[in-house]
Design a protein that fits this description.
mainly alpha; Double Clp-N motif; 2 domains; two-stranded antiparallel ribbon; 5 strands; 48% helix; Clp_N_dom_sf
Length: 321
């Protein structure tokens, strides 16, 4: 069994992934680990590659892995594969007795990172066109050659933002750049525990609720049903720009899709005007945690349109919805 010794920094990088790995660590897993690094993270973030993005892509059902000798992402429910992994290189740190199994591609990249640098490790992983790290970048819509060039120069590129300004806060929450705080103690407690490892696109109605609350909070008032309607469209349009994050819930986005089919988009909702009459049935009564909760935006849209005196219903009527 071949053993490889690496510096303590890279051993800690391997350990970052170990809690999530279900088998030997591959370059895709290492990409997740280095994306959390203070130096590497901002460079990858310029290409919209963040920890939650990498983790979500690696967990895509049916996705073909580029490194068959690497493990999967542990789903938190099945038993962790304990080995033995006799066919894999075993890695240990210079001051650490632990050994961790890695894929052949990961071992090659670790050997090249002789300076114990995560930047060097990432560059070595991307030098192998067949690595899982390269495959993940491509699945995210990034060009590995451009990422390698940014690594060579040490400078994150200035790339034009492809989303309208009013969509960017929801996008940044989706990518894990910012965190929704919620409006009450229970919300704050929940999201302080879950932190940034939430793929909001997998739960489109919860995402809509969080985005609606955030928008209302920025305006210093209670959340209204027209906020929810706007958030439904905003999150739908953001999700459409990041299809690699929506695999788990693609069938639940029909609410936004049906509005767009009627030429009702977030811009038209923002530009519309309503009188100051409040909702007869507030969002808290329409979206109540419990057995009636839905993650289907088509069901949410039906509920938003079910009360004619509500702000969302009046807005839809004014827009021809």
């Amino acid at each position: 069994m071949e053993q490889l010794t690496v510096g303590d920094k890279l051993m800690n990088t391997l350990a970052t992934w170990k809690g999530l790995a279900n088998g030997p660590i591959g370059t895709g897993h290492l990409l997740y680990a280095v994306s959390r690094d203070r130096e590497v993270g901002p460079l990858l973030d310029a290409f919209e590659i963040t920890p939650i993005v990498v983790r979500t892509v690696l967990r895509t059902p049916g996705r073909a892995a580029a490194e068959p000798d690497a493990g999967t992402v542990h789903d938190g429910e099945s038993a962790i594969a304990e080995g033995p992994f006799d066919g894999n290189v075993q890695v240990r740190g210079t001051s650490d007795d632990r050994t961790l199994p890695v894929s052949a591609a990961a071992a090659t990249a670790l050997r090249a990172a002789t300076d114990d640098s995560r930047m060097t490790l990432l560059a070595a992983m991307l030098d192998d066109p067949g690595s899982e790290a390269n495959a993940v970048l491509r699945d995210c819509g990034a060009d590995p050659a451009q990422v390698r060039e940014a690594l060579r120069t040490g400078t994150a590129p200035q790339r034009p933002d492809r989303l309208a300004p009013e969509l960017r806060p929801a996008r940044d929450a989706l990518l894990g750049r910012v965190r929704y705080r919620g409006r009450g103690f229970k919300d704050r407690l929940l999201f302080s525990v879950l932190a940034r490892e939430i793929n909001h696109a997998a739960r489109p109605v919860m995402w809509t609720r969080l985005e609606a609350d955030e928008r209302a909070k920025r305006q210093g008032r209670a959340t209204r049903t027209d906020d929810v309607l706007l958030a439904l469209l905003v999150t739908h349009e953001v999700a459409a720009a990041y299809p690699h994050l929506t695999y788990a819930a693609a069938r639940h986005y029909d609410g936004g899709r049906s509005l767009l089919d009627k030429k009702i988009d977030h811009r038209r909702v923002l530009d519309a005007t309503l009188d100051d009459r409040p909702d007869e049935v507030p969002p808290g009564k329409i979206l109540q945690p419990g057995p009636d909760w839905t993650e289907d935006t088509a069901v949410l849209l039906e509920r938003l349109a079910a009360h004619p005196a509500n702000r969302s219903s009046r807005l839809l009527a004014a827009l021809g919805g």
